[in-house]
Write a structure and sequence with these properties.
Elements (H helix, E strand, L loop, with lengths): L6 H8 L5 H10 L4 H5 L2 H22 L1 H5 L11 H25 L1 H7 L10 H25 L3 H6 L20 H17 L4 H18 L19 H10 L13 H5 L4 H16 L17
Helix pairs in contact: 4-6, 4-11, 8-10, 8-11
The structure holds zinc ion (2 copies).
Length: about 300
């Protein structure tokens, strides 16, 4: 809750007139507790994990000819029924596990020092913090993901996420509840190391969700925002991880490609890329998919 009784009081406290965004923030948050503001991440995650995959599904249904050339594994079609079934599983985990955890995790946000008051952070502060959060999330999730491929952990936990060898948007959070919780930790790690404003935190949660869905769309569209981020892993990069499945020791990183490169866990992927390019060049293969290249020895 804002410590100011009026907008004038807020302007005197920060020593300048409020910007239009700060006025909006003041009007919206003046009578809301910090706990309620934090809990905005629940409808935010729900809406994004529903609407973003739905957007990709609708594109697939409405413009099949357009999307066909961008499908990473064109021979695999996930039915509407499987999409719906997957969504129900994801929502069950969301409401039974994620929501209760989020509802009780507010003290950690308070402890970290996420602020809700005015002034709002500058765009430079928001962008630099978001970059730090993405780097921390990527590095931490890289190692967690590698650990999830140890035999026992894979068989008992991570296997659920690998059910779809050709993923689609709804499969992003299709995972064992333990995995959902463990992979959620790095999302709080960045804000814990570099605490910012609640607005930055909510923006971070939203971008993280969108980024994660983009990895699982199964389409390598040229217009996704990840295409404009240097060293970015994308749908095609993560799709390969699902394609190889349980034995996959490749493409663990969720956001950037440098961890896999440095630690040598993208050798199979890079070998495949070179091989496919060669096959496309000499005409022995007509598309860039893995599915028709199952005779290829990747690793
Ligand atoms: Zn995996
Ligand atoms: Zn995945």
């Amino acid at each position: 809750m804002l410590p100011y009784a009026s907008m004038q009081e807020a302007e005197i406290a920060i020593g300048r007139p409020l910007t239009s965004i700060e006025t909006l923030w003041f009007n919206y948050t003046a009578d809301k507790s910090d706990y309620i503001l934090y809990c905005h991440n629940i409808p935010l995650i729900f809406l994004l994990s529903t609407l973003v995959p739905l957007f990709y599904l609708l594109i697939e249904l409405m413009f099949p000819c357009y999307v066909a050339s961008y499908k990473v594994q064109p021979k695999i079609k996930v039915s509407l029924y499987d999409n719906f079934k997957c969504y129900l599983v994801v929502m069950r985990t969301f409401f039974l596990i994620v929501v209760p955890v989020l509802l009780v995790s507010y003290p950690s946000i308070k402890m970290i020092g996420i602020r809700t008051s005015l002034p709002l952070p500058s765009s430079m502060e928001i962008i630099s913090q978001l970059i730090i959060y993405f780097v921390i999330e990527d590095y931490t999730n890289y190692w967690i993901h590698r650990a999830f491929h140890f035999k026992w952990v894979y068989e008992n936990i991570h296997k659920v996420h690998h059910e779809f060898t050709a993923p689609m948007g709804f499969a992003t959070q299709h995972a064992h509840w333990v995995e959902i919780l463990v992979f959620g930790i790095p999302s709080f790690l960045g804000p814990a190391i570099v605490p910012g404003h609640m607005l930055t935190f909510l923006l971070w949660i939203a971008l993280r969700e969108i980024e994660s869905v983009e990895n699982h769309t199964g389409y390598d569209f040229p217009w996704t925002f990840k295409k404009y981020i240097p060293l970015s892993a994308g749908a095609e990069y993560h799709d390969y991880h699902h394609y190889v499945g349980g034995q996959s020791q490749s493409n663990f990183a969720p956001i950037f490609t440098y961890c896999d490169y440095i630690y040598g866990t993208d050798k199979g992927y890079r070998y495949r890329k070179r091989l496919l390019q060669k096959q496309l060049k000499d005409g022995s293969k007509s598309d860039g998919s893995y599915a028709s290249g199952q005779d290829i020895k990747w690793e």
